[in-house]
Amino acid sequence: MLKNHYQLLIIGAGPAGLAAAATVSGHGISCALVDEQPAPGGQIYRCSESVSEQRARILGDEYQRGKQLITAFRNSDAEYFPDTRIWSLSNQRQIGIIHQEHSKIITADQILVASGAMERPVPFPGWTLPGVMQAGAGQILFKSAGAIPGYGVVLAGSGPLLLLLAWQYMNAGVDIKAILDVTPLTNHLLALPKLPRALLAHHYLTKGLVYQKDLRRAGVITKLGVSALQATGEECLQTVSYHHFGRQHTIKTELLLTHFGIIPHIWLTQASGCDHWWDKHQKCCRPQHDDWGNTSIDGIMVAGDGAGINGARSAEHAGRLAGLQALYALGVLTEQARDEQSINDRKWMQTDCHIRPFLEAYFAIPDKLLATPDNDTIVCRCEEITAGQIRDAVANGHSDSNQVKYFTRCGMGPCQGRQCANAVAHIIADTGGQAVSDNSLFRSRPPVAPLTLAQLADLHEANSQ
Amino acid sequence: MFKQLPDSIAETVEVTLNGQSIRVTQGISVAAMVLTQGLRCTRETPVSNSKRAPFCMMGVCYDCLMVIDDKANQRACSVMVKDGMTIDTQYGAGSKPQVFQC
């Protein structure tokens, strides 16, 4: 049963949250971990506990690491609440929770937001058609249901996940019709200066090269330097077209999985009022934090990809650091003990992060593409607002995201702008409005997850128990 | 659109999808179930009646909204199939369709 107060509340059961919970275990503090999914692992280690050996093998070594983390967490004394949604987080450390269909507000002395990442939504013509999905969705379907494309698939976009998914699909015997890589060829040159540092974390590069070699050997067609990606079809996806070296090509397919990198899931930290900043290298907004994970609000910490994209390994170390910091803040560890116990994680994290500047430069999506050049493309999937309508609003003097939102309803649908916020910021900058900056995104207010009136009305009763 | 690997089809439950009784794998999400059942569209938008289907599968995009056990606007990717569950394609802001085929 969920209590009204915890000394430490961890939000998210991915690598950061799991590692933090295991770190604080055995110190006599009350700790709860809440998570939306029915089982621990986050997106990266989704269903690690329950997948068959065959599926785990196809998914690769990295995925299997999740099992160790989950076992350590299961052996910890943290209370675990799966299938639990957070709908608000205040700067007073009040957390709105929906657990077993009932709503409740609880408090905590320390809160660790380990909300992870989401796919970077990049609108392109036809991206709302049934049959167009994100690459992460394909991976989730495989991890959680053993489901693979039945009639072939086209993979398109840019970033390590696209390559990994292609490799996993190849191992599972999926017919990959083509990999359409939209990474600009000039990125290869721009990323070169970052290569020496990346060599310090060379296992990532080696792995990428092995995946590419395996795919080539299997005869999977990869087109580099693709542009003008477009999905078309009557009601559902029928064809994917693209430009390659000045020529237009078309592929018949009923499934297109796209990937344009990942961005932190910041809706909770935003709603709580934590300071955020625009990272021009990662091209996303991320919460400000110190090297323990402390945000600008006392008692609210962040760790893992929700704090900025550093990958699963770093998330694990950041989770441990945040756990140690929570123990220190709660008076369980001295400053010296905290610092001593953090040495190894800091060292690992430093090494792990050497790869990032190279990856960020290599897979950087050009601002032009992020700003949805085609005016007929729907940007806000919920309210069906096009790039052209947003540009018109900017031309009419609505020069920042919130003004565009009030004027067009863009970002006011059920997803609350999660799919269009970044694109809107880039379109505004591209049209002569506010440049993309720390305050570019829509304001986020609770409830950040849907809440029925019945659940809201339920609040008083739940909290008086 | 999707098919399940033979090793992942374990115990099954019975659900009703758009009025049809079917046996499906236990322990998977409604969205995974409908995609492996070959349903290409899971809702029609309230704005333009255009067809949509699951997009992100992780609860972020809200494009997989369906009517589950007569409750509209449920994210199919975040609800697990249960024995006896009824799942319907969602029309607009939340009414149940009469006939819907894509």
Q: How are the SSEs ordered, and which strands pair?
A:
The complex is a heterodimer of chains A (465) and B (102).
Chain A: E1 5-11, H1 15-24, E2 31-34, H2 53-59, H3 61-74, E3 79-81, E4 84-89, E5 94-99, E6 102-113, E7 117-119, E8 132-134, H4 135-145, E9 147-149, E10 153-157, H5 160-171, E11 176-181, H6 186-191, H7 195-198, H8 202-217, E12 222-223, E13 227-232, E14 239-244, E15 247-252, E16 256-259, E17 262-264, H9 267-272, E18 276-279, E19 284-287, E20 300-302, H10 312-329, H11 335-353, H12 356-362, H13 367-370, E21 378-380, E22 385-386, H14 387-395, H15 401-408, H16 421-430, H17 453-457, H18 459-464
Chain B: E1 2-4, E2 12-17, E3 20-25, H1 30-36, E4 43-44, E5 51-52, E6 65-68, E7 71-75, E8 86-88, E9 90-91
Parallel strand pairs in B: 2-8, 4-9
Antiparallel strand pairs in B: 2-3, 4-5, 6-7, 6-8
CATH C-level category of chain B: Alpha Beta
C-alpha geometry of chain A: globular
How many individual domains of chain B? 1
Q: Fraction of residues of chain A in helices? A: 25-40%
Q: Using the 3D structure, state the CATH architecture of chain B.
A: Roll
CATH superfamily of the largest domain in chain A, please? FAD/NAD(P)-binding domain
The greatest inter-chain interface is formed by: A-B, 45 and 42 residues
| Strand fraction of chain B | 25-35%
Series of H and E elements of chain B: EEEHEEEEEE
What is the CATH third-level topology name of the largest domain in chain A?
Answer: FAD/NAD(P)-binding domain
Structural class of chain A: alpha/beta
Straight-line N-to-C gap of chain A: 12 Å
Poorly predicted runs of chain A: none
Alpha-carbon Rg of chain A, integer: 22 Å
- What's the N-to-C terminus distance of chain B? 12 Å
In CATH, what is the class of the largest domain in chain A?
Answer: Alpha Beta
Q: Fraction of residues of chain B in helices? A: under 10%
